Amino acid sequence: MRRLFWLAMGVTIGALVVRKLSRAAEKMTPQGIAGALVEGLRELADAIGEFGADVRAAAAEREQELRAGTGLDAPLPTGEQVQLPRRGAHAADR
């Protein structure tokens, strides 16, 4: 019974070692290296896209905060016309 147990243990360990070595050898082939490179580039592109989306969302949120703080989006009072100061050479023509 002990011999059968150790035989089964040896066969199991041997099979696991062979599988690990086969996977490692497969990763070292040109196709395996190319596949890993493609996967890495895909993950990098996804991360850059997510970063860009986060930056755009934060910029839009900050712009809303600034507009609310400065009153740029506030409606003009009704019935009143606002005269903006004139600048440049044509300002002297007034």
Word description of this protein:
It comes from Geodermatophilus sabuli. Residues 67-94 are annotated as: Disordered. This protein has 2 helices and no strands. It has 94 residues and is an all-alpha fold. It has a domain at 43-70. The model has no long low-confidence stretch (mean pLDDT 86). The termini are far apart. The longest helix is centred in the middle third of the chain and has 41 residues, at 30-70. The protein has helices at 2-27, 30-70.
Features:
0% strand; rod-shaped; mainly alpha
SSE blueprint:
Blueprint: H1 2-27, H2 30-70
Number of DSSP strands? 0
What does the main sheet amount to? none
Number of helices: 2
What's the pLDDT, averaged over the residues? 86
Elements, N to C (H/E): HH
Q: Pairing-aware structural class of the strands and helices?
A: mainly alpha
What percent of the residues sit in helical stretches (DSSP H or I)? over 70%
Shape: rod-shaped
Uncertain parts: none
Range of strand content: under 5%
Cα distance spanning the termini: 112 Å
CA radius of gyration = 35 Å
Write a brief caption for the model.
This protein has helices at 2-27, 30-70.
